[in-house]
Design brief:
By secondary structure, the protein is α/β, with parallel strands linked by helices. It has 13 helices and 15 strands. It folds into two domains: 114 residues, 3-Layer(aba) Sandwich (Rossmann fold), CATH 3.40.50; 173 residues, Dihydrodipicolinate Reductase, domain 2. β13 and β14 form a beta hairpin. Bound molecules: nicotinamide-adenine-dinucleotide (NAD).
Length: 335
């Protein structure tokens, strides 16, 4: 039985907390920390033995093997370092930090101390995307040629969130950068990006874009086109298509129901799911389960800190390409 703690019980922390307490038999949550009462009340409903507002009580808890960091991004890296020094295994929500320097120094600490660190790129665990990865690995798609990823949110977050998010590419497209790295399993050579402000002028005033296009060219010549939008009026839109010499495979949006309504205007299907909490419910459970299994079986983490760094470097290259209106070579970064 792996003994867990959790730091931060907001939107994502609540999902992980509930999954651990009700759906993951190999783990038990013995401590939960949140500064505000609302999060702590949620933990109390699940009878977590220690519920506290003091992070040190979790970090230094002698019985805890591993801790999930579900706080706002600006607290991730400091907690990772403190937990690593306390000898705990770490599951950290994405991204590790918005500063490249801080990510590099944090990963140095992880390397020096040698504790397991998993980064929560949950979309890798989505059963639809998993099947596509499996078909690529088994050669069913043949030699990969192109991938197209579409990621559209139902509505933009509040402007205050936009201002501290690191921008569309760092905040939102980062999941798709990781997905591209995961599916192609090669190094990106070049990045070309374009971004515009079409949805809300306030987003533009906050210095961000709300609609983005990124073209990644990998060293093996596979190209990945990623479209990102902060607003789709029809709900959360997450689709993916891979094309190769033996065929094409695509993941469509799961809908709220499988019903069809047919009338004189045509065949009507149900609506898209609302947002990530519904769309990725299975992947949130599967990612923490994979973390626990890796700890139990002493296997490498399925998604490592270096995967977070690679996705972040693509976001940095995309921002550079957009601002400088040119193709950016990955070799220009980290020089
Ligand atoms: N993988 C995904 O699909 C996904 C989805 C949403 C959010 N996230 C990531 O998860 C993180 C949290 O996002 P959220 O939407 O749950 O945010 P949130 O604001 O809903 O929750 C954050 C919680 O952390 C608490 N908190 C604030 N400062 C803290 C500190 N120093 N120590 C401990 N707790 C603290 C807050 O009181 C709040 O309860 C972010 O880094 C975000 O990028 C990932």
């Amino acid at each position: 039985m792996i003994k867990l703690g959790i730091l931060g019980i907001g939107r994502i922390g609540k999902i992980h907390l509930e999954n651990i307490c009700t759906r993951i038999p190999g783990a038990t949550l013995i401590a939960a920390m949140n500064p505000s009462e609302e999060g702590r009340k949620f933990a109390e409903k699940f009878n977590v033995p220690l519920v506290t507002s003091n992070a040190a009580e979790v970090i230094q808890h002698p019985e805890i093997d591993a801790v999930l960091i579900c706080t706002p991004t600006n607290a991730h890296a400091d907690y990772v370092v403190q937990l690593a020094k306390a000898g705990k295994a770490i599951f950290c929500e994405k991204p590790l930090d918005l500063s490249l320097e801080k990510v590099l120094s944090t990963l140095e600490v992880i390397k020096a101390v040698g504790v397991p660190l998993m980064l929560a790129f949950n979309q890798r665990m989505d059963p639809n995307f998993q099947e596509i990865k499996q078909c690529i690995v088994e050669g069913k798609i043949g030699k990969l040629h192109t991938i197209h990823i579409i990621s559209r949110d139902p509505a933009p977050p509040p402007i205050a969130y936009i201002e501290s998010s690191g921008g569309l590419f760092m905040d939102m497209t980062i999941h798709d950068f990781d997905m591209a790295n995961y599916l192609v399993a090669d190094e990106v050579e070049e990045v070309y990006a374009k971004g515009v402000n079409l949805i809300d002028p306030e987003i533009g005033k906050a210095g961000d874009i709300d609609t983005g296009y990124v073209l990644l060219t990998f060293k093996n010549q596979v190209t990945v086109l990623i479209e990102s939008s902060r607003k789709a009026v029809y709900g959360y839109d997450q689709r993916l298509e891979v094309f190769g010499t033996k065929g094409m495979m695509k993941a469509e949006n799961p809908l709220k129901t499988t019903n069809q309504f047919i009338d004189h205007t045509g065949v009507h299907l149900s609506q898209n799911l609302n947002f990530f909490i519904d769309r990725y419910a299975a992947s949130y459970l599967l990612e923490v389960t994979a973390f626990i299994e890796a700890l139990q079986q002493k296997k490498p983490m399925p998604i490592a800190g270096n995967d977070g760094l690679k996705a972040m470097l693509l976001a940095i290259a995309a921002n550079k390409s957009m601002h400088e209106k040119r193709v950016v070579k990955m070799s220009e970064l980290l020089q």
